[in-house]
Specification:
The protein has about 325 residues and is an alpha/beta fold. The chain folds into 2 domains: about 150 residues, Rossmann fold (3-Layer(aba) Sandwich); about 160 residues, Hypothetical protein VC1899 like domain (Restriction endonuclease-like) (Rossmann fold, 3-Layer(aba) Sandwich), CATH 3.40.50. Helices cover about 35% and strands about 25% of the residues.
């Protein structure tokens, strides 16, 4: 496995097979344009652009712009309110017969919803050989709306649904207590609602060690929660992780999993898409872990994020992933 930080010039020079399949996702965020624009002159085997059906006029325009960057790019429309339908669209798109001979899969994960990202990789990893090279690209935001001042300083509001992610339902044993692992982000409603919904016996907070200073609302909530709600939820642990490193998240999840191996472990990824991907990859190997999706009621589509030229790359094969996690969680193979 390989992790690297690139600028846009390095991304344009990145070695990609001319037979590679490229997947990305249109969005109301301008960040959805960064990586496709850098790869527009590449010869690729296939280009597929996903788009949510309710993305709005700005998202429609951005998706059309991406389509126009490539010859014969295909658009696939998703319904983020219907995860099983979304899985069907991914299944139709990811043909096992075609993928057998594809040497490299390139995925720009920047603007997938967290749930769609997890569903996509669940289907993809079923359909490709274990030796196929998967290249994940992510465009880092220079700032988020939640870090501004004034009434527009928010990313999402409300929660319309909390559900297990299809394909990552884990296992429930009534005799076991529940440990909730939360990778915290910048959205207070998502963070607070999941505790009310699940009410676990124990909680593990994972905080990013390298993202920009968190909004005061998140800091205040966590501090209040840690010091006033310990009795209600039992044990509360707190650790730090690198939100832009898949291997960092895999390592800390492996540690927490072994520590709580006698419990039902539920993971709620609320941080970066790279950390969400890591949660999904961990769930692919440790199938008794459940992953939860917290769906916002509304997004702040007005300058949700600002673009940068900071690109993160993660290269891996399924063989490499399984070997890496077998070294991180040796006890899991015997339980």
């Amino acid at each position: 496995m390989e992790e690297r930080r690139l600028d846009l010039q390095q991304l344009r020079r990145l070695r990609i097979s001319p037979r590679a399949w490229f997947f990305c996702h249109g969005s109301f965020e301008e960040r959805c344009l960064t990586i496709p624009s850098a790869l527009r002159e590449r010869k690729l085997g296939k280009v597929i652009v996903f788009k949510n059906d309710d993305v709005g006029s700005k998202g429609d325009d951005n998706t059309k712009h991406i389509i126009g960057e490539f010859l014969d790019a295909q658009m696939v429309i998703l319904d983020k309110n219907q995860p099983l339908t979304t899985m069907d669209r991914f299944s139709e798109t990811l043909s096992p017969a075609e993928l057998t001979d594809v040497p490299q899969i390139v995925v720009d994960i920047t603007c997938f919803t967290r749930e769609s990202l997890l569903l996509f990789f669940r289907i993809l990893t079923y359909r490709i050989p274990d030796h196929t090279q998967i290249t994940v690209l992510y465009s880092v935001a220079s700032s988020y709306a939640s870090h501004r001042k004034g009434p527009g300083a928010w990313l999402s509001r409300g929660v319309s649904a909390i559900r297990p992610v299809a394909g990552y339902s884990g296992e429930f044993i009534s005799s076991k207590s529940t440990n909730l692992i939360v990778l915290t982000g910048f959205e207070i409603d998502r963070l607070s609602t999941i505790f009310e919904e699940i009410e676990p016996a124990g909680i593990t907070f994972l905080r990013s060690e390298n993202t920009r200073e968190e909004p005061a609302s998140i800091s205040k909530f966590r501090t209040s929660f840690l010091y006033s709600s310990g009795r209600r939820f039992g044990n509360i642990d707190e650790y730090f992780f690198d939100a832009y490193s898949v291997s960092s998240v895999l390592q800390i999840l492996s540690f927490i999993y072994i520590k709580n191996i006698d419990k039902v472990n539920i993971v709620a990824p609320l941080s970066t898409k790279l950390s969400t991907l890591a949660v999904g990859l961990f769930g692919l190997i440790q199938e008794n872990v459940q992953i939860m999706y917290v769906k916002p009621a509304v997004y702040n589509k007005n300058r949700y994020s600002e673009i940068s030229d900071d690109i993160r790359l993660f290269n891996f094969t399924l063989n490499e992933l399984e070997h890496y996690l077998s070294e991180q969680t040796p006890l899991a193979a015997t339980t």
